[in-house]
Design brief:
The protein is an all-alpha fold. The chain contains 7 helices and no strands. The radius of gyration is 20 Å and the shape is elongated. The model has no long low-confidence stretch (mean pLDDT 93).
Length: 109
């Protein structure tokens, strides 16, 4: 009962790429329908490359560490330590930072 179809490798690769493109388009459509914010690819690339999400989003919002500290109530030195990876943050600290940056906690961790 196992039916098999043989196609050239190039056609298989083209179909896989088309399926991935479709999945990306559907994810985008879901995000837009939900009213979610989208981010430039440079932002995503920096995070994927291992840069601190807190630093990336802070810079995207055009805030200095001092301005983020004032907006969130989190000490500037603690922000610097989190961004450099010297220190982690509690859920409450991430909540304050996320709220000040208009993000979700998941965006920062």
């Amino acid at each position: 009962m196992n039916e098999m179809i043989t196609i050239p490798r190039a056609e298989y690769d083209r179909l896989r790429e088309a399926a991935e493109d479709l999945a990306d388009i559907q994810a985008y459509d879901r995000a837009m329908a939900a009213g979610e914010e989208s981010f430039p690819s440079e932002v995503v690339d920096r995070i994927v490359d291992g840069e601190s999400p807190l630093r990336v989003f802070r810079e995207l919002r055009g805030l200095s560490q001092t301005a983020l500290s004032a907006a969130s109530g989190v000490n500037r030195v603690q922000i610097a330590d989190i961004e450099s990876g010297r220190r982690s943050a509690s859920v409450e600290t991430f909540r304050k930072l996320a709220q000040a940056l208009n993000l979700t906690i998941d965006d920062l961790v």
